[in-house]
Fold this sequence. Notes:
By secondary structure, the protein is mainly α.
Amino acid sequence: MTALDAVDAVTADIRDHRITVDGTGLFNVMRHIGLLCHLTARMAADAEYQLTPNVADLPPAKNLGASAGHLGQAVAHYSQAVAPLITLTTTARDTLQQKLDAFGHHSSLRIHLDGGSRALAAARTALEAQQPLTAASAPAPAPRQAPTIRRRA
């Protein structure tokens, strides 16, 4: 599976397993964090291997590194979504004050899940970015000669 395919697979899995305000949502967010951590480690390792010669079929190390950074942001957003999700799944909302407090937790949860989605999209974009032709595939420019300076004797 290519790096881009792996990002697409994790994105599809996250899309198919929504975060809901119940025990299932809590399970799903922990599962998403695990998938994102694994994918981040893979991108970082692929970037490291790309720095050694003769590695074929990998995106450039710069793209892999940028993608790993964005995936790290997605992990951070999903991790920050855990606290409001736990609060929403374990706290009763019987009183008016509890119901008002829940709005803030819902808002925080939405902000972090949206941030995680944006980070995943940025990771995908980083892998799709076109790189300039490498030295092996582009003809090397002819060396310029310095102007000749003649000295008078």
